[in-house]
Design brief:
Two copies of one chain form a homodimer. By secondary structure, chain A is of the alpha/beta class. Chain A has helices spanning 3-24, 43-57, 74-82, 102-121, 133-138, 144-154, 170-175, and strands at residues 33-37, 61-65, 87-90, 127-131, 160-164, 178-186. The mean pLDDT of chain A is 85. Strand 6 of chain A pairs antiparallel with strand 6 of chain B, so a sheet runs across the interface. Chains A, B: Required for both de novo synthesis of the corrin ring for the assimilation of exogenous corrinoids. Participates in the adenosylation of a variety of incomplete and complete corrinoids.
Chain lengths: 201, 201
Amino acid sequence: MDEAAERHNAKMKKIKAARDRMMADKTDEKGLIVVHTGKGKGKSSSAFGMVMRCVGWGIPAAVVQFVKGDWETGEKRVIEERFPEVRLFVAGEGFTWETQDRDRDIAAARRGWDIAKEQIRDTRNGFVLLDEINIALRYDYLDIDEVVTFLLEEKPPMTHVVLTGRNAKPELIEAADLVTEMDLVKHPFRDGIKAQKGVEF
Amino acid sequence: MDEAAERHNAKMKKIKAARDRMMADKTDEKGLIVVHTGKGKGKSSSAFGMVMRCVGWGIPAAVVQFVKGDWETGEKRVIEERFPEVRLFVAGEGFTWETQDRDRDIAAARRGWDIAKEQIRDTRNGFVLLDEINIALRYDYLDIDEVVTFLLEEKPPMTHVVLTGRNAKPELIEAADLVTEMDLVKHPFRDGIKAQKGVEF
C-alpha cells in the first residue's frame, strides 16, 4: 500500500472512531447528518422539500447556499415570501464558472462555512441545509477534515444537517448517517430541450 | 425468445414510437414527463421541492397523492397553509398495508387517476405531481398502458407531469423524458434510529 492510501485509510478510521463515539451517546432519536449526492436531479430540490416539511412541522430551519448565485431561484423566492421563519443565507455569488476568481470563491466558501457553523451551533435550529457545499469541498475551498470534525463533534445532538452536491467526499460519506445518491437514468438535454423553470431551477 | 418477452418488446417499441411522434411536434421547450424512482430517499420530497419552485415562479400546480393516507404530513400542511394556490388531492387512504382491502385500494387508485387526468388536461396547470402513483401501477391497481398512452397522447405540450414511487415500470421509464433513480447508500434505520419529522415525512 502506498503512503497516500495508508494516510487515507488512517483518516477514514479516525472518522469512523469519531462517529462511533458520537453514536455511543445517542438514544434512538437524534439529529442526522444527511448527504445528497450523485449526478442525477433532485439533490437540492429534495433538501428544499425537507425544508418545506420542517415548516409544516414547525421545526426552525436555516439554509446556507454555497453555490447558487445572486440570481433569483424559485426556492429563494418562496422562502423569502412564504417561509419568513426560515433563515436563508446566500454565500456563493456565482462561483467558479461565473466569477473565474479563485480567491473570491474561497472567500465566499469560508464565509458560508462560518455562517453554517453559527447556524448549526444555534440550538434553536432543528434543521440546517448546506446547499451545494460539496462543490466547495471538492475544489478544496473548504477543508473536508475541518467540516467532518465539526459535524461529528460540535453538531448539537438533535439538529439535522443536510449537505448537498455532486462528488461528496468519502470522508463525508463515512461520517454521515443517511446518504442518497441521485442517479441520472434519462435526461432531456440529450434531446436538445432547455432547462426549465419549476423542474430544473 | 418466449411469448412474454416478445409481447414486452412489441409493447416497448409501440411506446417508443408514440414518444417519437410526440417529440417530433416539439420545439426546444416542452412539458416533461419526469419519473423519480429507486429505493433511496428523496423521491417525493424532491417532487415537493419542485412544487415549491413552481410556487416561486407563479406556475399553477396540482398534486395528487396516491398513497399517503389521511394522516398529516409536513408537505400537506404547508400546501394547505402556505400554498393555497396549489390544488391538493389525497386519493389513497392508507393503502394496502393499512387497509388490507384490495377492492378499496383499487377504487382509491382509480379515483386518483380520474383526478389526475382532469388536472393534467386542465391547461391552467403547468405542473402536476402524481405522488406515489408507481405503487398503484406496480400492484396493477392502475393499468400501465392506459397511463402511458394518456401521458404521451393527451398531456398538454407545456405541462410537466412528475410521477414518483419505487419500482417504476419499464413502460413508464421508456415514455419519460427525465428519470432519476434515488439510491440508498447508507441508512440510519440499520442503526436503530426512528423515522423523524422533517427528514423522513
